[in-house]
Amino acid sequence: MTTSFQTPRVLPLREAPIARPTTLHALYRAAARIIAVNGLYKGDFVPDAFDREMTVPHFLRPMSIVAALKCATSGDPHRTSLLADEAIAVLALRVEVDGEGPLFGGIFDLEAHVDAWGDLESRTTESAVAVLEAAAVACEVAA
Fold this sequence. Notes:
Blueprint: H1 24-38, H2 65-74, H3 82-94, H4 107-118, H5 125-142
C-alpha cells in the first residue's frame, strides 16, 4: 500500500518548476519561443481572456509580450512573478513608443508601455521575437 507522498507526480512541462527560466536571458528566450509558436496578440494578454468563446487553454493562445513573459515564469499569462516583473521593467526601458520611453516607473505603467509597443499597427510576431532575442543577448553580454 502506498501513500500520496510515495506516489510520484509527473507535471506537464509547462508546470514543471525545472522547465521554468531562472535568469533574464533565459526568460526572454522562453517568451520569444512562446510568441513564435502561438503568435503575437494585440490587445489584452490573451484573446477571450474570460473563456466566453474559446476552450483552448490560455498558454496555447496567441499572447502579448507581457503575457508571454508571465507565462514563461509561472505557466499562466495572468500570474506574475518577480522575474517577470524585472524582465518587463528592463524591456520597457529598451523599447520606445512614438519616440518615448515609459512615463512612470510603476510595474503597471511599465507593462502598459510594453503592451503599447506590441500593439503598434506595424508590429509583427517576428519583430516581437527579434526584440526578445536581442534583449536576451544584451542580458547575457551584461552578465
